[in-house]
């Protein structure tokens, strides 16, 4: 083997900016405790070291398989055991998915994310999803799917179809997880993230806040995400959308500034990741969204629907971006 590349890579390692090895929960709690102006300033500094602060990435979501899920996630409208009124539907036909992806592309989305209400995909389902991925990718869009927990070899099949990102959220920190979900463990989700990473697919992993967790829980979730090695390329921060009929329907909403602090903590601890201002945007004012962008969010879900709930209309987002001078990428 030629020795030069080895030497070059060793030099590259030596000169690469030292990446902070691991974050401690106490350190992230200290970030949360900063005066808001200082925290946002720090997040904005980190943001500008790694990104153009006036650029924003847009992903459009489509629920390709809705409802009837075996799991008991306390926030979810699609769990079969919650009486939410969400009907169980079959996997969508491929032409419907392709038409939705084309419409998303025409409206300016760069990534198309297909979600399924499964604990995990069965082999037969996976074959149809890989076909969807191939066709959506052929339109020139980045592809993302979120299908639940993956078994042996499934991530490789997705990669072979050209999948760019797999979304699988840690949702909440390890110590609070059991209060929200009992049908699987958070370690199961970590196993899936490892399979995704090993298969060479980019990781999209984040969580939900506003579920009655403490600030320490939020800091611990951020730490879990930031300490993944490498951290996820994409980090969705969801504000709980309360769904009537779920156990979390009546939970006290999180304070707006605490949400902004969570975005800032994600930005500071995961400097090179896209941080997505995700679910819950429909109930946020333009000013709150702008604060989230200032705190380092540089991605959104774009289009009038998330999975089973609403999202701001694309026209409204376009108008907001124009007012803020944000350019889509
Ligand atoms: N079944 C797969 C799974 O759980 O990974 C994929 C679909 S699941 C609906 C995707 C993610 O949506 C969840 O992990 C959670 O973070 C988010 N989510 C679901 N319901 C939500 C709600 N009511 N408010 C905020 N985020 C929610
Ligand atoms: C993510 O973090 N948020 C999206 C996506 N990944 C799959 C889902 C949000 C769902 C909000 C509730 C609903 O529409 O059912
Ligand atoms: Fe099922 Fe996913 Fe909803 Fe949990 S979050 S109930 S796994 S669809």
Structure notes:
The chain is of the alpha/beta class and 329 residues long. Helix 4 (94-106) packs parallel to helix 5. It has helices spanning 4-15, 25-33, 36-50, 94-106, 123-138, 154-160, 174-180, 186-198, 215-226, 256-269, 286-294, 314-324, and strands spanning 55-65, 111-116, 142-146, 165-167, 202-204, 207-209, 234-239, 274-277, 299-301, 327-328. The longest helix has 16 residues, at 123-138. Mean pLDDT is 94; it is low at 1-16. Helix content is 42%, strand content 14%. Helix 11 (286-294) links the parallel strand 8 and strand 9. Strands 1, 2, 3, 4, 5, 6, 7, 8, 9 and 10 form a ten-stranded parallel sheet that branches. Residues 61, 77, 115, 146, 167, 169, 206, 236, 238, 241, 278-279, 306-309 line the site of 6-(5-methyl-2-OXO-imidazolidin-4-yl)-hexanoic acid. Iron/sulfur cluster (SF4) binds next to loops.
- Taken from the alpha-carbon principal axes, the silhouette is globular
Number of DSSP helices? 12
DSSP strand count: 10
Strand residues, percent: 5-15%
The profile of the biggest β sheet is: 10 strands, parallel
Average residue-wise pLDDT? 94
What sequence of helices (H) and strands (E) makes up the elements?
A: HHHEHEHEHEHHEEHEHEHEHE
Question: How far is the first residue's CA from the last residue's CA?
Answer: 40 Å
Radius of gyration: 19 Å
Bound molecules: S-adenosylmethionine, 6-(5-methyl-2-OXO-imidazolidin-4-yl)-hexanoic acid, iron/sulfur cluster
Catalogue the unreliable spans: 1-16
Going by helix content, strand content and strand pairing, the class is: alpha/beta
Level of helix content? 40-55%
């Amino acid at each position: 083997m030629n020795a030069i590349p080895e030497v070059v890579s060793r030099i590259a390692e030596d000169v690469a900016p030292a990446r902070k090895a691991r974050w401690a929960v106490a350190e992230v709690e200290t970030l949360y405790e900063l005066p808001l102006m200082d925290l946002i300033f720090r997040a904005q500094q980190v943001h500008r070291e790694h990104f153009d602060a006036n650029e924003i990435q847009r992903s459009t979501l489509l629920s390709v398989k809705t409802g009837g899920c075996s799991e008991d996630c306390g926030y979810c409208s699609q769990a079969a055991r919650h009486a939410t009124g969400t009907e169980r539907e079959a996997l969508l036909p491929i032409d419907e998915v392709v038409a939705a992806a084309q419409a998303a592309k025409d409206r300016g989305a760069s990534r198309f994310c297909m979600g399924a209400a499964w604990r995990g995909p069965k082999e037969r389902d996976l074959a149809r999803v890989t076909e969807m991925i191939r066709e959506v990718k052929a339109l020139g869009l980045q592809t993302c799917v979120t299908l639940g927990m993956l078994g042996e070899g499934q991530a490789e099949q997705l990669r072979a179809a050209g999948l760019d990102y797999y979304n699988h959220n840690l949702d909440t920190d390890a110590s609070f997880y059991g209060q929200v979900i009992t049908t699987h463990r958070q370690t199961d989700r970590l196993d899936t993230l490892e399979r995704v990473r090993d298969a060479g697919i980019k990781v999209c992993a984040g969580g939900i806040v506003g579920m009655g967790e403490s600030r320490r829980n939020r800091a611990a979730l951020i730490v879990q995400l930031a300490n993944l090695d490498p951290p996820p390329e994409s980090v969705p921060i969801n504000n709980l959308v309360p769904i009537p009929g779920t156990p979390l329907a009546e939970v006290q909403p999180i304070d707006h500034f605490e949400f902004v602090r969570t975005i800032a903590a994600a930005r500071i601890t995961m400097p090179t990741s896209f941080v997505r201002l995700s679910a819950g945007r429909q109930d946020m004012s333009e000013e709150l969204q702008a604060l989230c962008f200032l705190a380092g969010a540089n991605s959104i879900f774009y289009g009038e629907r998330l999975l089973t709930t609403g999202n701001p209309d694309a026209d409204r987002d376009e108008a907001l971006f124009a007012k803020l001078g944000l350019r889509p990428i």
